[in-house]
Amino acid sequence: MMPPGAGGGATSVGRMCGIVGFTGSSSAAAPGPEGLAVVLEGLRRLEYRGYDSAGVAVLADGPGADGTPPGLTSAKRAGRLARLVEALEESPLLEGSTAIGHTRWATHGGPTDANAHPHLSADGRLAVIHNGIIENYAVLKAELQAEGVVFASETDTEVVTHLLARTLAEQPAGGAGALAESMRRVCRQLDGAFTLLAVHADSPGTVVGARRNSPLVVGLGDGANYLGSDVAAFIAHTKEALELGQDQVVQITATAVEVTGFDGTPVTPRAFTVDWDAEAAEKGGHPWFMDKEIHEQPKAVADTLLGRSDAAGAMVLDELRIDESTLRGIDKIIVIACGTAAFAGYVAKYAIEHWCRIPVEVDLAHEFRYRDPVLTPRTLVVAISQSGETMDVVMAVRHAREQGAKVLAICNTRGSTIPRESDAALYTHAGPEVAVASTKAFLAQITACYLLGLYLAQLRGNLFPDEVAAVIGQLHAVPAAVQEVLDGAEAVRALARELVDAPTVLFLGRHVGYPVALEGALKLKELAYIHAEGFAAGELKHGPIALVEPGQPVFVIVPSPRGRDSLHAKVISNAAEVRARGARTIAIAEVGDDAVLPHADVVIRVPAVPTLMAPLVTVVPLQIFAMEVATAKGYDVDQPRNLAKSVTVE
Using one digit for the tens of pLDDT, what is the confidence trace for 313-344? Predict the structure, then answer.
């Protein structure tokens, strides 16, 4: 993930903001502050999506005491949501049961009160919130300024607000659907990736939204309806939802939902039911969401395996909508992903090539299109994304399909863009992952990749049925192994507190231990802001060993002594090399491996599992280590600086 930009140029920088919209009738939301309460609750659940600033706008339910027309009031503050709540306590807004809210991860303009959302029209009767980036905002802004429009912020979003106000003024006064029609007209002028929500004082009880290349879902309530950048926005109120597709506008009232394309063509969105509840998104007594999610990893793996094999151990992946004959003819697999998900892809490469004898490439999604990849109808592209909205992956998926390749999505979020735009989807069942740094989604992604590899091996005859059943049995034993690591985590926490002042940490691994080393380093960078690097252990002598000096902490992911060839001995030799140069070596080694003892200052034990299953247990101590170092430093583990949960534009 890239850090957010602070300037106003149309740079392709990722942003993920939290968006909530709500409108209800008096039977569902008593007149008064209910709309604001619902939105603030949704923002609290979405704050992981953006926490540089927050804001709300509320439409009054009726005319003022003096007979003035229904009005719109808003408030916004830089900083965490708590600052906005404090401001609202000091200066309450008008009471109303229609509201929108936003938590921001800054790109255009720094995190200031002025740049926070909502952005209001000059007359203060229109409010707009936005997730994404308007790539042609500079041209549009120049046109508006030439007309005399004065801007109050540095954001691209304010351009949309003034365009919408101008377009709305051109509509018949009080016309039904005028706000939605104006939104459609404005969206046709915009380039980029965006989700937009708008309310207007002349359209009481109505929220209008739009999406292009950025997430937006509808929640269906009883006498109330909701909009959110993900289902966490309304999960406390309803599990019934609608998917919104590309280039669509939605208008919600308390009793109706209307969806059209940007061209005005009516659309029937697909309904789905959310398979987790509000309690799943709460901390449950843990100090951090990340701590909770680390402890949910045994269940995440078990749930991802659930129902994917029959009583005989044969793979059953009914959700794969790609014809079996096509899958049998696949001659190359390319995994596309970013960050932690890409490391899951690196693990998958070892397993799928071993089981299926199909060459596997792993591409960072943001590099994929630009290297002119060789794709044919016999290429299977596997797109991995927790959120299903990672824009780099979305664009790579589109490119792959344009070139004739089949695309299979591995995703944790139903109704999201990547599964919808792929030929097939294999869902992980990790439940909501709120912490910005991914943990349980990583293990679930690896598990899903293993399921895909075993299914292909079964389908193509690379493995006998009893071999497939044996590996499935090994996978079903993993949750207990992960739980064993969690039960013994105090030694890792103590080590983290001891190394809290280390200026840099190195991680070494080979084979499937190499992506684990990369992930361990990434977690430490993300959470503790410590320089950390992961290396293939064999690369040491080709340069990185120059970094080793007395006291340098080096984690060594030691493969099983029962593993392939002589990798165990080679990694032990690497540990000896760095220790001889003064490094403090920390070995992640399986129970009973005494060969590491002469070459390690600290040994963290993990249960013995088959080689290909090892990443599912060896990465867990590294997650805990990074979390504990960040905690000891006094940092916010769930919301590390400069990062958001997903990057929803390129």
Answer: 787 776 677 888 999 999 999 999 999 999 99
CA distance 329 to 332: 9
CB 436 within 8 A of CB 639: yes
AA letter at 148 = G
* Mean pLDDT across 623-628: 98
Contacts 24+ apart (CB under 8 A), 323-331: 324/459, 326/406, 327/380, 327/456, 327/459, 327/460, 328/459, 328/460, 329/378, 330/358, 330/378, 330/379, 330/380, 330/406, 330/456, 331/358, 331/359, 331/376, 331/378, 331/379
* Greatest alpha-carbon span in the chain: 85
Give the 3-state secondary structure of residue 114. Answer: coil
Contact of 446 with 297, CB cutoff 8 Å:
no
Query: In 10 A of CB 526, how many CB atoms?
Result: 24
Which alpha helices (H) appear in 529-639, and where do they start and end?
Answer: 567-580, 615-632
How crowded is residue 492: how many other Cβ atoms within 10 Å of its Cβ? 22
The identity of residue 254, as a single letter, is A
What mean pLDDT value characterizes the chain?
Answer: 89
- pLDDT at position 69 is 61
Separation between Cα atoms, residue 281 and residue 460, nearest integer Å: 40
- Give strand ranges (E) for 313-400: 332-337, 360-364, 379-385
pLDDT in tens, 266-288: 999 989 888 777 766 677 778 99
Q: Which residues pair with 554 in a beta bridge?
A: 506, 585
Q: How far apart are CA 619 and CA 277, in angstroms?
A: 28
Instruction: Quick: pLDDT tens for 193-237.
Output: 899 999 999 998 999 999 998 889 999 999 999 999 888 899 889
Q: Is 645 a catalytic residue?
A: yes
Residue 396 has pLDDT above 60, yes or no: yes
Place of tokens 């005859």: 461
| Cβ-Cβ contacts under 8 Å for 90 (sequence gap 6 or more) | none
Domains in the chain (CATH in brackets) are 18-280 (3.60.20.10), 283-476 (3.40.50.10490), 480-639 (3.40.50.10490)
Instruction: Compute CA distances 485 → 23, 196, 327, 541, 608, whole Å.
Output: 46, 44, 37, 32, 11
Record the tokens describing residue 220, joined without a space: 């269906």
**Which is catalytic among the residues 76, 406, 440, 645?**
645
Tokens of 258: 């209307």
Distance between first and last Cα of the chain: 10
**Helix/strand/coil (H/E/C) assignment for every residue in 370-395:** HHCCCCCCCEEEEEEECCCCCHHHHH
In this structure, are residues 249 and 257 in contact, taking their beta carbons and an 8 Å threshold? no
Q: Which of the two residues, 19 and 315, has the higher pLDDT score? A: 19
To the query of whether residue 411 is one of the catalytic residues in this protein, the response is no
Match 């003819």 to its residue by tokens. Answer: 329
Please give the backbone phi and psi of residue 573, each rounded to the nearest 5 degrees, phi first: -65, -40
* Measured distance CA(410)–CA(394) in Å, rounded: 12
